[in-house]
Amino acid sequence: MKHLLFIFFITTSFSFASKAQDTLSVSTGLPPLVIPPEPVHKISKTPAALGISTKVQASIAAMKNPPVNIALFAVDRRNTTQEGNSDVIMIISIDQVTKKIKMSSILRDTYVNIEGKGMDKINAAFAIGGPQLAIKTINQNFAMDIRDYFNVDFFTTAKMIDALGGVDVNVKTEEIPYLNNYLQEISGIDNIPPVPVKEPGLQLLSGKQAVAYTRIRAVGRGDFERTERQRNVLAALFSKMQGGGPAMLPVLMTQILPFLETSMSSMELFSIGGNILNSKNKTIEQARFPLDSSSKGIRVNNIYYLSADMIKTTSALHNFIYKGIKPGT
């Protein structure tokens, strides 16, 4: 559910537009591209509904050109009618001046307060109250100002990756059996036989293979390394999209955008994407929170949670997003 890629898939398509419009013409001989009217998933965007405090509002208002922060969720669901827990929780931050992108993963087991529920894992917020509550939970616990979101699932992620021709991933020997196990599970959902990964090393993975890869948790440091895999897949896809050129536009608009659940309109996406990919900043900075130094695993009623020092975690997150200070460990 490295589905963060979608943000970037979409943003890539916009880099070739000088401004947002209903029909795009590019100078490469391609026919005009008509933007499909994707369904916008409405959420209430009042500060109260989003959990943006007056203190945060004042802090953001005092900043000159603050970054745009967008929540990215990848929901663990086996059919399109389930809400499901958010298997991936990320904050995508876009600098309005330099157009630099930052990805901040929030570990899904982080023990936070969910309005109306009490203390629970942060990934439960989406299952309880959908994107509205999920965004509100991030804003309330980390003093953020997120107003929009993207969401994907197993099915849409795999389809989008395949539409782009797959992604290059360096698979480790010890990851192969777990990758293939998840691949078997994912393939069983639509009853299409999987194509297993047989060798380690840098290789082109299909959509389902890439999704399976990003779900690996048993190799290395559990969810800590899994979020790294998610961010690495997204970064690789972003790089691939940048090199695709205008020929990628029809693919993006007809095979990517329709699968993306978002609170943003096509015009908003074009505006953001065009600014990002027309910039000279092509490197994506990434980090995950909470840090090891400010968190520890605990058990409550025999359920594992990641308890974090929320003051230190919020400070480190803000330093990364707003001040460009890379976190330690």
TrEMBL record:
Gene3D superfamilies: LCP protein
Keywords from the named record: Signal
Domain of life per record: Bacteria
Every Cell envelope-related transcriptional attenuator domain range: 85-242
Keyword Chaperone: no
InterPro entries for this protein: LytR/CpsA/Psr_CW_biosynth, LytR_CpsA_psr
Signal peptide per UniProt: 1-20
UniProt entry tagged with the keyword Heme: no
Stated family: Belongs to the LytR/CpsA/Psr (LCP) family.
NCBIfam families, alphabetized: lytR_cpsA_psr
Protein name: Transcriptional attenuator, LytR family
